[in-house]
Amino acid sequence: MTTPDTIILTSVDVSGDVTRHDDMLANAIASELRRKGRQAAVRSIRETSRMRELRKTPAGHAEIASLVIEGTPQLIVFVITEALYFFGYGLHPAEMFRTVRKHSSAVIALAGDAATMEADYLLTHGLVDCCFLGDAEAGVSALVDCLASGCRWTDIPGLAWWDGVQVRRNDVQPRSHEISSSGPIIRELYERVVPSLSYGVPITTWSSRGCYARCSFCAIPAGHSFQKGPRQQLRPVEELADEITYLHDKYGATDYQFADSNFILPGDTGERRVLEICEALKRLPFSITFRIDTRADTVTFRTVSALKEVGLRTILLGIESFYDPDLKVFRKDMVATDVIDGLNLLDELEFSTHANSKYRVRTGMILFHPATTLAGLRANLDGIRRFRISPKKLRTRLQPHRGLPLLEEFPDAVCSDTGKLQFREPCVAAILKSFTGVFDDRHCKVYDTLRNLEKLSLISNKPEMTCPATMLRREVEDASYSFFDRLLAAAEDDAESFSDASVAIMDEEAVAFDSLIEVRGFGSIVNDLSQCLSYENSNYKLLRRLRVA
Given 192, 219, 267, 447, which residue has the most CB atoms within 10 angstroms? Predict the structure, then answer.
């Protein structure tokens, strides 16, 4: 029997601006197969500029399948590590798998933490043949060997499969503490991705895989629950430094995004790890800048100072909420004072939530979830206002995916007909609907346009030109905070009559906001800056593709 062709599908857009854990795992699997002389190709389910259109219809799903399934592969592996990146763009996997089933007779397997959460549903409904629990490189390689030899594959360690009656789960081998020999794997990713990156987009790398935390809204802890060993595997620091040197020498890369779920580990272990990485970066014969993701309760003056010295420019801080009951629901294992202390510490080190700061703090938040209360919304609004966090965070909500530990605590949280999130307090849903109804149509469009102009001014080395856009953008932020405040106050005053009150508030806000941008000359600001900067900056069109912060 000939060596089977294997197609590995990653959910993240590998042809443009985003590379994350899904890409890394997909290429790790492909590299393992190639080392053994097997054929493997890595494709993205979003390798098309028409994806936003295609994802909306069954016909679109069929076209997506034709884009990613070439020839007659005998094995298709869907890699879904982070649920947000797979589901967050509106393409639910069940529909995708049904389409693939119609167009291919290949064995369909799942890999990655989010895939583990969906395994029971997809296996029970016959949409996939098997799912790899935990790390998947060795398991996929073993499955390919079985398909090539025609032997039974249901005994492979770490495999979940349907026996005709129930889902079976084979024992999973423990994880090792370190990720070994990952350099060649990731270089295959870079060969394909780096040449197509848009202007201003950092190259993604990683210093660890997995996550030590146990957040109930995240797929990664759920995926780790089937595998013993360390929740977060560390990459050798020397290998990381070698990779950055390789990227600098080959592509001239000096700006990086570390895709670690938590770059700074807790306690003395985390501090030693950060300082070791910083010493390695200091020894490089060139300078870099980089961005990291971490938690509010792991940042310390010593670690952030050291990272800042060797090029740290942006921190994405997973705070989720300023309200203790929310943090308890999320299993963040911290309290609101930890969030506030972390933001204050970063402010002391010149890291700011202000959009044009040299040293930037971006925040991850979830305001709306099944147990959201008016008190929680009030605490979060106060925190967002205090630290001047983007008003876009006022509409953030939990992404409801099967298998999330948080949803297991609230079995009625997702509507069985629509798949949409439901709330225990009815007026919470009304507040979200009322706010987004005006914010998305007015505030957000103006905000995004102004942010693009600010970015363009900075890239053009004309920061003085950002002043008109920045001043108006801050007024838009204040208007958004005030609008949310008015809605929340009306619900706090009389929840039963909120629906009627919210209509009047929405109408008044729409008129007031339109008047604000007219009086402040929004149209003139946009026209003047666009005409000046678009002619002077050759990357204007590329910039417009960038995701607004």
Answer: 219
Report the run of H or E that residue 304 belongs to, with start and end.
helix 301-309
Spatial distance between the Cα atoms of 471 and 468, rounded to a whole number of angstroms: 5
Flag whether pLDDT at 352 surpasses 80.
yes
Give pLDDT, residue 445. 92
**Cβ-contact 534, 540 below 8 angstroms:** yes
Q: Is 420 helix (H, G, I), strand (E, B) or coil?
A: coil
Bridge partners (DSSP) listed for residue 10: 44, 79
Q: Which domain holds residue 501?
A: 426-549
CB atoms within 10 A of CB 269: 11
In a domain, 217, yes or no: no
Quote the CA–CA distance of 215 and 230 in Å, as a whole number: 16
Of 141, 169, 197, which residue constitutes the final position of a domain?
169
Three-state secondary structure readout of 442-457: HHHHHHHHHHHHHHHH
Q: What percent of the chain has pLDDT over 70?
A: 78
| 147 neighbors 74 (Cβ within 8 angstroms) | yes
Tally of residues, the chain:
549
Domain count across the chain = 2
Q: Which two tokens stand for residue 474?
A: 């801050």
Q: Supply the pLDDT for residue 183.
A: 52
| Residue-level pLDDT at 81 | 72
Q: Which residue has the tokens 């001014």?
A: 457
How far lies 392's CA from each of 150, 182, 226, 401, 467, in Å? 53, 37, 35, 22, 21
Q: Which of 390-394, 435-439, 530-534 has the lowest mean pLDDT?
A: 530-534
CA 61 to CA 56: how far, in whole Å? 8
Q: How far apart are CA 490 and CA 498, in angstroms?
A: 6
CATH number at residue 65: 3.40.50
| Biggest distance spanned by C-alpha atoms of the chain | 74
Q: pLDDT digits over 297-323, tens only?
A: 999 999 999 999 999 999 999 999 999
DSSP codes joined into one string, 318-351: EEE-S-HHHHHHTT-S--HHHHHHHHHHHHHTT-
What is d(CA 326, CA 316) in angstroms, rounded to the nearest whole number?
Answer: 19
Tens of pLDDT, residue by residue over 404-450, are 888 888 888 887 666 778 899 989 999 999 999 999 999 999 999 88
- Please list, residue by residue across 217-230, b when 16 or more beta carbons sit within 10 angstroms of its beta carbon and e when fewer do: bbbbbbbbebbeeb
Pairing of strands 167-169, 159-162: antiparallel
Question: Which H, E and C letters describe 273-289, residue by residue?
Answer: HHHHHHHHHHCCCCCCE
Per DSSP, helices labelled H in 349-392 are 374-386
Higher-pLDDT residue of 274 and 467 is: 274
Residue 33 lies inside a defined structural domain of this protein: yes
Residue 87 has pLDDT above 50, yes or no: no
Name which residue leads in pLDDT, 478 or 58: 478
Pairwise CA distance, residues 467 & 458, whole Å: 11
Is position 317 within any domain? no
107: tokens are 């064995």
Q: Let me know if residue 163 belongs to a domain.
A: yes
CB atoms within 10 A of CB 153: 20
Structure token digits, residue 48: 């098309």
